Input
Amino acid sequence: MRSEALAVGVLGVGLMGDDHVERLVRRTAGARLVAVSDADPARAAAVAARHPQVRGIADPLDLVADPEVEAVLIASPGLVHEEQLLACIAHRKPTLCEKPLTMDAESAVRVMQAERAGGRPLVQVGFMRRFDPEYAAAKQLLDSGRLGRTLLLHNTHRNQQVPDTFGSEMIVRDSLVHEVDVARFLFGEEIAEVTVLGGLATRAAGDGVRDPLVALFRMAGGGLVTSEVFVNSQVGYEVRCEVVGERGTVVVGRNSAGLWTTTFDSLGAAGEHPPGGRWGGSVPPDFRVRFARAYDLEVQAWVDACRRGELVGPTSWDGYAATAVSSAALESLRSGLPVSVRLVHRESPS
Ligand code: ISE
Output
């Protein structure tokens, strides 16, 4: 690994981008934040005022082209990701891009093609749950085969509230997209078909907004996934899941209790393996608190990989596949019918 710290620029310093700014400045080894840009110049100026070594650059594409910036973290709204990603790829700068990768499958394909034409993978997608110690432990347990074949996954995803601008499309593309990635990650296969239904909508949501939603995914291998997404639950940030295998279950996100498994041992007797501690405690207010450790590990892994000249974590293919599923989910939400997910042929990573 090279010895100098990686010079990072951040695009978008709203809620998430600002959180990453503090992470890069205070908690990430081997990185130095050198520049930020935001559609709202006051937000970029506020970061620069807090951190005098950081330059505010008005045009995001100038930040990407800036010779001092070696790697880019994109935390701007999904609508501008395609343009910003294509610029990063053109300048051959490794990029950590918050989800969603782009707003539709076609633009995600354009990003993959540009990356491929450049000859080396450059884009990591910010599906931070893969770095969460509990989700990662569940994945390891499933891969170990101890629970047998994975049959079902049940997800719960609640936010206390979201801004008025958050309509049904954002609930799918910005929130449900995490369950899309978790399903692909834990099963290790693609999603073949999606059904999304809105039922009674909470009065806390805006007019016509389908909140909560329930989604059903049929995995390519036949497994099933249910997901509740409720972004105006009023309570707090509750993200958990339960995986049902042929020989036991595992629960992620029971707050302070860590990973819970219930297995059927080889003699056929039921056995419980609580991790110690108790289920209970407080519900975190938002994702920055619940997934603080996951974000730290994600950004550190990205910085370390960039300094080694490598790429780790979810790729542009993962971002593309998730975007394609989101588009199918929106189609299903409109029609109430199951929609098949058709992915382009996967070329081997460059
Ligand atoms: C937000 O953008 C996130 O990524 C959070 O993890 C998710 O819970 C929230 O619903 C999204 O708006």
About this structure: DSSP finds ten helices and 15 strands in the chain. The longest strand covers residues 150-158.
